[in-house]
Amino acid sequence: MAALDGPRWGPKSGGKPKLIVFLLHGLGADGNDLIDLAPYWASAVPDALFIAPHAPQPHDGAPYGRQWFSLSDRTPVNRLAGVRLAQPVLDGAITAECAAANLPESAVVLMGFSQGAMTALYTGLRRAVEPAGILAFSGMLIGADTLAAEIAGRPPVLLVHGEADEVVPAEASHQAESALAAANVPVESVYSPHLGHGIDDAGLTAGALFLQRVAAPFVAA
């Protein structure tokens, strides 16, 4: 299985990382799309290494960009099959990066936008070693029907969504919030009025506070 590669940033503190934050981009982008979040969030978690991997597949709907899985067929069955293929690729990257940094695999936060959020939620809730937290921006919970049988951990989750999202409707995060709460996953949410398919200052601030909180056990030492 090919290793994931992409831009990385930090730690801001200049020391060895105590936490790894994976930034998972959306359909048709690549790791460069989200790495600029690192300097902003590093103020909250200065001991974190931020990694923004390029998704494993070329975007099959354009001559550029990457994808975690194909959405040429957007049916629920295809989305589930696709994210199941992406899961072991992301799992392998987490294991490899934690080993390289000499960190436990629990010292990981998965952040994703859109398709990256879908991949982060699906993988993070099914990892044998649960991540410290999951941030899902403008995403959805794929595989909600099988979650009860497959869930391996209950990391805290933050859902952030624009109420005017024209690509992935905010209802997807409302549904995810209900499903996660029913599975006893600690979940909180931020919904931004008038925001489309993107990230605004309210989401960035909520993400920084969430990162600071879930990182605390790892950076206290």
From TrEMBL:
<feature type="domain" description="Phospholipase/carboxylesterase/thioesterase">
    <location>
        <begin position="16"/>
        <end position="212"/>
    </location>
</feature>
<protein>
    <submittedName>
        <fullName>Dienelactone hydrolase family protein</fullName>
    </submittedName>
</protein>
<dbReference type="GO" id="GO:0016787">
    <property type="term" value="F:hydrolase activity"/>
</dbReference>
<dbReference type="InterPro" id="IPR029058">
    <property type="entry name" value="AB_hydrolase_fold"/>
</dbReference>
<dbReference type="Pfam" id="PF02230">
    <property type="entry name" value="Abhydrolase_2"/>
</dbReference>
<keyword id="KW-0378">Hydrolase</keyword>
<comment type="similarity">
    <text>Belongs to the AB hydrolase superfamily. AB hydrolase 2 family.</text>
</comment>
<dbReference type="InterPro" id="IPR003140">
    <property type="entry name" value="PLipase/COase/thioEstase"/>
</dbReference>
<dbReference type="InterPro" id="IPR050565">
    <property type="entry name" value="LYPA1-2/EST-like"/>
</dbReference>
